[in-house]
Amino acid sequence: MRRRTFHAALGALISGPLAVQAPAQSNARKPALVERLEFFDGDVIFGPPFTSVQDVVRELDHYRIKEALLFHQACRDKADAQGNLDLARQIQKSGSGRKRLHVAWCIVPHAGGRLPSAPEALAGMREHGARAARVFPSNHGYRLDGLKEILGALEERKVPLLVDYGITFPHNDRTDWEEVEWALRSYPGLHIILCHPPSRKNIQIFRMMELSRQFHLSPAGFRIHQEVHAMTRLFGPQAVVFGSHSPFVTAAAPIAEVIYSGLDAREQKQIAGDTLRGLLREARL
User: Fold this and answer.
1) Where are the extended beta strands (E) located within 89-180?
2) Does the pLDDT at position 21 exceed 70?
3) CATH of the domain at 215
4) Which of 109, 130, 185, 226 matches a 20 to 30 Å C-alpha distance to 161?
5) d(CA 65, CA 100)
6) 3-class SS at 101?
7) Considering the entire predicted model, what is its pTM?
């Protein structure tokens, strides 16, 4: 779905065949509903076509998203830790964007594959005001158990960790479910947000949610009808954290999944942003 058709498509859902199931709302009220939910996008990539943080702000405005947690594409694709610094500095200089944009500090291997020490990682986060960390085990060729020192430090300081195995597909799942379970068991106080897992992995996801309330799913690209509703009913609204993986994936679909989930307003608001805001507030650096 292209951005320019987003509101038209939502309006069609309301006035078309799904009008029986969906609350009666005019197109004019739809943006107000999105704004009331105060969406906080926890999975935004800073990279082309976003060439400045102003581009990100315009994208958020288009979808009525209030805040976003960003990571720099160079950190993931080139293992370039400089991306963390460049993004943090751009946000600091962005004026009003400073209140809406937040850095997810990427844990990036040094040359030769050596991972940074916990003091190194935490010093960078502290200096630049980052209150969440992000790792890419598949892209950077390591396992979570190679981050024991860092995971322990994040747990101690209540810093949430976003785990990103890359965009995957049902029959090409790069997620190492065993190591995610290991991390949840080994660091029971660490909040882990698993980003955009493949669809059709309900058994594995539900197992993680049943194991720990510290496990959260950011379901960009996860497309199973009413699955957000099912996860919330089984494990509570804190189990799902809104994230779009924009601009790789449009924010339109995950927004619609929350709005048409059939959940009550309180549950929708918690998924849309309140859980993530709470996690970032708890972080102590």
Assistant:
1) 101-106, 132-135, 161-163
2) no
3) 3.20.20.140
4) 226
5) 9
6) strand
7) 0.88
Q: Is 218 helix (H, G, I), strand (E, B) or coil?
A: strand
Residue 95 lies in a domain: yes
Number of domains in the chain: 1
Domain extent, residue 183, equals 38-282
Angle at 172 between CA 170 and CA 177, to 5 degrees: 85
- Coil, strand or helix: which one is 63? helix
Spell 184-203 as b/e; 16+ CB within 10 A means b.
Answer: beebeebbbbbbbbbeebee
d(CA 238, CA 256): 18
Is the distance from CB of 262 to CB of 229 less than 8 angstroms?
yes
Mean pLDDT along residues 44-51: 96
The tokens of 71 are what?
């990571």
The proportion of the chain whose per-residue pLDDT surpasses 70, expressed as a percent, equals: 86
pLDDT of 151-173, one tens digit each? 999 999 999 999 999 876 656 78
In a domain? residue 229: yes
| pLDDT reading at 35 higher than 70 | yes
- CA 117/CA 58 separation, integer angstroms: 36
